[in-house]
């Protein structure tokens, strides 16, 4: 831990030349008692962020919405979302074409109720109202491994709104799938959701746990999906799949992606470069639509594998930001020029 903190201090002191990225600035979303930061750009160019906030064992967690400037450097808290008696986490933001903002989350009463809920804001994130439930399990029979987790939105080219998530609700079926990657589509801006499609599963069922899916549309028009596969390896190696439309995907467990493990996140820049990060705390990139990958050295956040749940975004024409949980319970953004 001491070496990790020292490395962060050295990074903060001076820019670092890298293979493809020069890390320059650090911005703070939360100082403590926080985790899981995710961003979305507003129509006026500014940013919204969601972070999970923890208030002690007796009080359920909440989600805090923060407003940032167009460069992602300065942030101020804007609003908070809670669900009475329920722990909420895995916040995910998307700004729809009409300007409405959706906030997805996992919401649970452990062992009793698991839901993926959506709240909506029509005033830039200042106020929120419940909109819909994507999926749920209200009869887990005391089990902690029958939930639905980590919803991620993507606006598809045909106008449909996609949500991907990790899904344990097929674990009691025949065959039994410990966990799968599921998708639902909405044609009414998230007010209702279509039937579930399973995008990644272990053939014939079993103990493998594909999950934490995220996809991005690449420059060639296809969609790239990244996801972890837990079960055999506790550090959960990452694989990829590609789809022409973001809905029909090839069978199987995909193609392994080097240098990434657990909780992958990705973004495609306006130049076409695809960047990926994960709890391995490396950054890799592809300039040929995922055919070949290179590793950025040094990474945005040194220290190796850690359950810090990073995410990556294009902040400006030539800038990316890696959002990450930090030692001590803060959430920060490491910004670099590519």
Automatic annotation (TrEMBL):
Record key words, sorted: Hydrolase, Signal
UniProt entry tagged with the keyword Hydrolase: yes
Signal peptide span: 1-19
Molecular function via GO: hydrolase activity
InterPro entries: Sialidase_sf
Keyword Ion transport attached: no
Protein name: Glycoside hydrolase
Protein species of origin: Lysobacter auxotrophicus
